[in-house]
Amino acid sequence: MAHFNSLRTINVAAVSIIGFALLTTVSAAQSVNVQGVIKGRNGEMMVLKAEDSTDVNVLLTDSTQVGQVQGMFQARRKQMSMAALIPGLKVKAEGTYNDQKQLVATSVSFKGNDLQDAVKIEAGLHETKVRVQQNEEELEKQNAALKAQNQALQQQQAKLTEHDTKIAANKASVEAAIARFGQLDDYYIFDEVTVYFAHGKTKVDPKYTPQLLALADKAKPINGYMIEVKGFASTVGSTELNQQLSEDRADAVTNILVQQGHIPLTRMLAPGAMGETHQVGDDKTEKGQAENRRVVVRVLQNKAIAGIP
Question: Does domain 187-302 have CATH number 3.30.1330.60?
Fold first, then answer.
């Protein structure tokens, strides 16, 4: 009888230990929620700046559900593409941690207003970069003119010396410009293609397909590359129609890059429908209108996350 009780006690203890181990395993695999702002994207890897100011590496997979919460009580959810996950967007990521301490996301959600704010921030940074670049170019022209006047007053040896100084000054100016752009914009621009459209049309002219495929091939060897697509329209017609035209044009170009250029969706930033904004031509002329009906495609490298494995 005592022997039976001993065996029974051992069995109960063993079952308790096994149950505790299973409970620990289940707890370790429990789903967690992390809220924060997207700091950078490198394809399937996304870095979140959490509310406690820590960086969280979030791994996106083919099964990750991306959605936009809608409604007054945020009860509705609209499925979105991973391309909507751009730097500056406030999101909530849900998933479990793997052995590399990466949060393998089962879902990522965000509000519609937050997406609009992130797109505006990104567009504003690019505009600032363009203005700074224009100022730097004008400054370089003025410096070059002053140096040219000094060279005319000097003898041959002085001219040679001035020439060497000019080369050094130009090099320093370029390095300074790169440093300034790095503070204003998180991207290097490696290549750019502009696709133009006929009035009221959204179909891509076949003559642009080779250019788009060449851009895709150039992007693939770049570490941490992303591709930005922005669509524009002229002011001819209603604002609502032009907004839709710019979106459809951007989507058409994106389809060529993804389907024929074999660019993964995780490498595409959300196609931007810019509507009638950023007119580059005089919309009072047919030539200017043609210049404004366009899609601009850029190959970018995000400096902040280029080194993430």
Answer: yes
